[in-house]
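Board notes, transcribed. Complex of a protein with 5,10-Methenyltetrahydrofolate.
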Amino acid sequence: MAATVIDGKAFAAKVRGQVAEHVDRLKSGHGITPGLAVVLVGSDPASEVYVRSKGKMTVEVGMKSFEHKLSADTSEKDLLDLIDKLNNDPEVHGILVQLPLPDHLDEDLVINSITPAKDVDGFHISNVGLLSTGQKSMVPCTPLGCLMMLRDHHGSISGMDAVVIGRSNIVGKPMAQLLLRDSATVTIAHSRTKDLPEVVRRADIVVAAVGRPEMVIGDWIKPGATVIDVGINRIERDGKTKLVGDADYESCAKVAGAITPVPGGVGPMTIACLLANTLTACCRANGLDEPEGLTA
Ligand SMILES: Nc1nc(=O)c2c([nH]1)NC[C@@H]1CN(c3ccc(C(=O)N[C@@H](CCC(=O)O)C(=O)O)cc3)C=[N+]21
């Protein structure tokens, strides 16, 4: 039987609609407009596309968007000065520094200079620590989007076997924390995992976040399992550029019970969750109730 396609694009539109309703209420009821600042250093074409799309959707849900584009040779001091300004700007509730940064900038130092309460990426060491100890934090957008789709599809994932392929700080590790918090049995696999296909075959939930185009194939998937494909890889095929995930869609969809497509799966949910996190940060900053269903 063919897998159910989990429509991340439609789900993301629904989430953005919910965010927009909350923003309306904040504006009319409290005179507060949530604001998101995005900082881009350098001019990577793919990054520019994402930043533009984030800015557009930020404005669409009624928030203020502050875009800061800095040249590729920006000094660490200038970048830290800008972050300091944004940390202290009451109109800014969320700050995102687009990654990766140019080599001469210390990514950890830069991320950890963002006020944790405004760290809508959830990458600050304080937020990482809070998440892993089950305390209130900002949760990384991509794993949060994956969790929302899993909860929506399964109702509960309690007791299910989940295998996360990939151990990055931005996806693999926080994803594992979120799955664990929802009482799944979690394995983190990676490029050195012994007999990866056999490990993946045990999973009811497979989260593919390795960054290798179409690496996970249908033969590795337990019949009926849910495949969440985090990969976004641009490849050349038949003389055309094509966007593919870390899972081989065609073969996986034949075996899986449900699967997220690329594009139109995890990617749009990531941006929707960025807006949801900005809303959450704004509510917390103003001592207001947090939006229900939009946090982890
Ligand atoms: N601090 C930081 N936070 C990020 O969240 C962050 C980042 N840096 N650096 C770059 C990556 C990449 N990223 C994407 C978000 C949405 C889509 C997305 O919506 N993709 C569409 C397709 C877009 C296309 O056609 O190229 C889709 O999958 O359907 C993709 C990629 C966020 N990132």
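The radius of gyration is 19 Å. The pocket of 5,10-Methenyltetrahydrofolate is lined by residues 50, 96-99, 121, 141, 232, 243, 262-264, 267-268, 270-271 (CB under 6 Å).
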